[in-house]
Amino acid sequence: MRLEIDIRKTLQSGDRRFELEAAFSSQDDLTVVFGASGSGKSLTIQAIAGLVTPERGRIAVDGAALFDAGQRINLPARKRGVGYLFQDYALFPHLTVRENIGYPLKKYLYFNLLSDARQEVTEIMESFEITHLAASYPAELSGGQKQRVALARAMIKKPSILLLDEPFSALDSMLRHRMRMELLEIRQRFGVPLVVITHDPADVEVFGDTLVVFANGRVEEVSSRKKLTVPQDEDGWRTKVCWRAQWKKENLAAQRLVPASGI
Amino acid sequence: MPDLTPLWLTLRVASCATLITFIFAVAFAWLTARFTFWGRDFLDAILTLPLVMPPTVLGYYLIVVWGRNGWLGAWLHAHLGISLMFTWQGAVLAATVVAFPLLFKSARAAFEGVSTEYEQAARILGDTELRVFCRITLPLAARGLLAGTMLAFARAMGDFGATLMVAGNIEGKTQTASMAVFDAVQAGNYTLANTLVIIMSVVCVTILVMTNKLASRGRAGR
Q1: When you count CB atoms within 10 A of the terminal residue's CB, does the N or C end of chain A come out lower?
Q2: Is B131 on the interface with A (CB under 8 A)?
Q3: Tally of structural domains, chain B
Q4: Cα-Cα end-to-end distance for chain A
């Protein structure tokens, strides 16, 4: 995957003014955008998804421009083919888990899903192990279940890139570790590149093949680490945990993990 | 058996007025809830004005605009030969205007209560703006819209002043229930007055109870 971003955006609200100048590119399938809140990282992935329109610049995934102010290209969000995991998941509260996941497949407003679409929903629910939740409403789910449902809904249309906005901040720390591993598995199973926004250094260890550090609306640092073999499905927990620990050691040694501004 | 014609006329007038007011109120509510534009607060104030203005003043404005010599009324009369004054359609016009702010306010609050994040999620999942509105915004705002519609209906049913100015009080033609009550009391016909008053009270109480139920279930709901 190749992600190229070079955008400018100014936000003004009363006397407060925020200027975003984001320019970076990533060749890796695991990219972490790291920074304190208010550093402009959320705004940047919202721009990738087409939720905000920059004033100038260009956004391209695998060479295809999603936004290019010079060439007057600005694909609407629905045509960008990106997946997006909202911080609090944004599951539609009036729809069941099954309806939420099938949402993007629905062609006609007031008719049921076509039978292949129904089959697709059933399959993806099986692969995320949420079949037993099919008839539940989002309000009845736990944090981890909500995240799985949201991931299944984001993945069902096979996006070319999956953007995740602080994906683990709403979970407790035990669950956080588990969901990180699950996300890595999903990445492998679907072969989808991930861009993870976070202010949690632990996410950098796991997902930061390319690390982009934001501060005050600017990209402060872009760095990539040399590749190690990513654990396979059959490797089991121990390998995965060791793999993580190894990163931690390496990264601490390199003092690259914690940006100069501190956390 | 007292003559219940005014009651049927009231139902017809209130139903038509609620329907018309629904379309405009929902459109304006969505516009003001979802977009920030120059003069939005002023527009909101103008649209809410019928709530606080004396109904007779409101009726006077309606005559100025829709009367035979009014800004729009003159055009209607000259080109289509229609006049709304002293017809039941005129009563619908008056009821529409007085009921509008109630529905507009509830609808705006309902739309503002729908998190824009759901709409953004729907866009990313492939929906056009129209589909986002039909599949996300409208269903999530439905309770608030329904409650507002019922309030508007109750208000449209009870209007006196504005309807009197625009449509008059013509027995069997534009005499709505609230005017029939007034006439009945003036004429000392307490049987008719009591009947109408009891029916209107029951309808209004029922509507309010149902509205409150909707509102409280909306708060506790998913």
Answers
A1: C
A2: yes
A3: 1
A4: 30
pLDDT tens for B50-80 read 999 999 999 999 999 998 888 888 888 888 8
- pTM value is 0.82
pLDDT digits (tens, 9 = 90+) for A121-155: 999 999 999 999 999 999 999 989 999 999 999 99
Give the range of the structural domain holding residue A193, as residue numbers without chain letter.
Answer: 3-91+141-254
Are B125 and A153 an interchain contact pair (Cβ–Cβ within 8 Å)?
Answer: yes
Cβ distance B136 to A84 less than 8 Å, yes or no, reads no
Residues of A in contact with B118 (CB under 8 A): 90, 92-93
Q: Is A168 domain-assigned? A: yes
Domain range holding B97?
A: 5-220
Question: A92, B131: Cβ pair inside 8 Å?
Answer: no
Residues of B in contact with A88 (CB under 8 A): 117
ipTM: 0.82
